[in-house]
């Protein structure tokens, strides 16, 4: 059973689905755990896996300063994984 929240029930958009900070922290923690498991399961090179893991660690760090922004970044990361897009930031 996945702790994912369907886009139509995004707790970050406010309204009846809005969550408290504690609930948001729990949601982000659960989704980070899911994201790390999904990255580990990907059939990609070690370098790509390391880059994806670093991206998730950046989300973890962001959660310490700005939890709603970290949740949005994680949602974009997961959406990119779901769509098959590359969730890595472009390299210069």
Description:
The protein has a domain at 26-83. Helix 1 runs parallel beside helix 3 (67-83). With 92 residues, the protein is mainly α. It is 63% helix and 0% strand. It has three helices and no strands. The protein has helices spanning 21-41, 46-65, 67-83.
SSE topology string:
HHH
Overall form: elongated
Main β sheet profile: none
In angstroms, what is the radius of gyration? 13 Å
The end-to-end distance, rounded to whole angstroms, is: 38 Å
SS strand fraction: under 5%
Based on the model shown, name its key terms.
single chain, 92 residues, mainly alpha, 3 helices, 63% helix, elongated
Topology, pairings included?
Blueprint: H1 21-41, H2 46-65, H3 67-83
Helix pairs in contact: 1-2, 1-3, 2-3
Compose a concise summary of this entry:
The chain has 92 residues and is mainly α.
């Amino acid at each position: 059973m996945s702790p994912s929240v369907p886009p139509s029930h995004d707790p970050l958009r406010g309204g009846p689905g809005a969550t408290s900070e504690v609930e948001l922290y729990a949601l982000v923690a659960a989704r980070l755990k899911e994201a790390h498991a999904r990255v580990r399961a990907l059939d990609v090179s070690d370098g790509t896996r390391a880059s994806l893991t670093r991206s998730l660690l950046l989300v973890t760090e962001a959660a310490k300063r700005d939890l709603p922004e970290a949740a949005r970044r994680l949602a974009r990361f997961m959406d990119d994984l779901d769509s098959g897009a590359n969730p890595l930031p472009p390299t210069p």
